[in-house]
Amino acid sequence: MIINGGRPLRGEVTVSGAKNAVLALLSATVLAKDTCRIDNLPNISDVSIMLHILHQLGADVKRVGRHAVEINTRYFNSGVVPHELTKHFRASYYLLGALFGRFGHARVAMPGGCDFGVRPIDQHIRGFELLGASVSFEENAVIALKSEQPSGAPVYLDMASVGATINIMLAAVRARGVTIIENAAKEPHVVDLANFLNSMGADVRGAGTDVVKIHGVRELHGCDYATIPDQIEAGTYMAAAAATGGEVLIRNVIPKHMESITAKLLECGVTVEEFDDSILVAAPHRLQRCKIKTQPHPGFPTDMQPQFGALLATAEGTSIISEGIYDNRFRYMEQLVRMGGDIKVDGKVAVIEGVDHLKGAPVKAYDLRAGAAMVIAGLMAQGTTEIEDIEYIDRGYEDIVGKLAELGAEIRLMPVVDAIRDVKVAN
Ligand code: EPU
């Protein structure tokens, strides 16, 4: 991806459906022997891979235009889901909860995932065990769950894990009895999954608070459902508009989901105006320093940390970012330093001295959000930035080049012979 920076973004951009919600919804279609239609489907590579996995396992998958899909999993194969299919991204582990929920057994290889340090799944496993699964680890990194009949149970999570909350919900909706998840994650995609499951006939209450209560039902049915807008894609365009000193109306957002991001932009001196389902961001002056600590929702999301790392590189004064979720999510900072940033990282804390401007340079996208940070840095920088390994960015941002070009960015893809392009997709 080639970006000639220094142009303020101006105009309107429409946000797509939420990646981390839709991956859970697509997995949940396994729970009914009926057709589910999902609208506001983002056209991103993670979705294509999930649809491919479902198809490989016997689902009837019909794309309806660019932004909808109909899935029927009546003839789904409950056999092993091999590493070949799960290695691409983290959300493949939702098939454990979904298959266990439907068949009472599941064999799914360990998920892939962006490398932010160790990412255990002990909370998922313990949750499955509490619901009656006997868990074993087989050859080729396959996790096997088996039970006569999954049964509801109280599950206390040691940390408010998004993945564990979603997986336990998937496993519990058809279990016998009641499951209560304490210290549940409250992210918007947890709420979206609960709404989707309830449209399928499930009885899930309390999603969005730290206690989720699930009364198991015998059967689920098909439904029509539209995915929520992507909080992180919206936040990325808000950050890009602010970082370039532009003015952008961001459409198809839920302003309530954006509060922690909006609060930090206001602290930096950006003007943010909220409407029913859009947000106007304008940054006529140089941005000011701020302090950020990433936390579970409704705290500032770790998935917006790299984009703000880029934005703060030229904000006046000393900014501090503390990463509260992952051990190792600052690798991208060395790329900002290559572009002229003055940044010191010590473990989970980064100290950023705002410089006058960044300078274009060849850089890498280390992962999805680090890639988004490189795009923002490139848009801010004087001169040309060339970003390598952009397949990571395609995983979570629909047509980012087209959307930014519409906003006046000078951005393009350099053609690469398909055959030599690495398929390095992984979340
Ligand atoms: N954790 C454990 N044990 C567990 C589960 C989690 O120790 O059993 C730890 C993790 O190691 C991590 C923290 O708890 O330090 C949070 O992990 P969580 O389970 O909440 O994250 P996740 O489900 O693996 C999802 C998103 C990530 C996002 C995080 C945090 C999906 C597919 N992925 O991951 O999204 O960073 O929640 O909000 O929903 C992205 O979109 O770029 C992305 C990485």
Question: How would you explain this protein's 3D organization?
Answer:
With 427 residues, this protein is of the alpha/beta class. Helix content is 30%, strand content 24%. It contains 14 helices and 24 strands. The protein has helices spanning 19-28, 45-56, 83-86, 94-103, 122-130, 162-172, 188-199, 231-243, 259-267, 305-312, 333-338, 368-380, 391-394, 400-406; strands at residues 2-4, 10-14, 35-39, 60-63, 68-72, 80-81, 105-109, 134-138, 142-146, 154-156, 178-182, 203-205, 211-215, 224-226, 247-251, 271-274, 278-282, 291-293, 318-322, 342-346, 349-353, 362-364, 384-388, 410-412. The strands form six sheets. The chain has a four-stranded mixed beta sheet with strand order 22-23-1-24. Helix 6 links the parallel strand 10 and strand 11 (178-182). It is globular and about 65 Å long. The two termini are 20 Å apart. Residues 422-427 have low confidence and may be disordered. Uridine-diphosphate-2(N-acetylglucosaminyl) butyric acid binds next to helix 1, helix 5, helix 6 and helix 12.
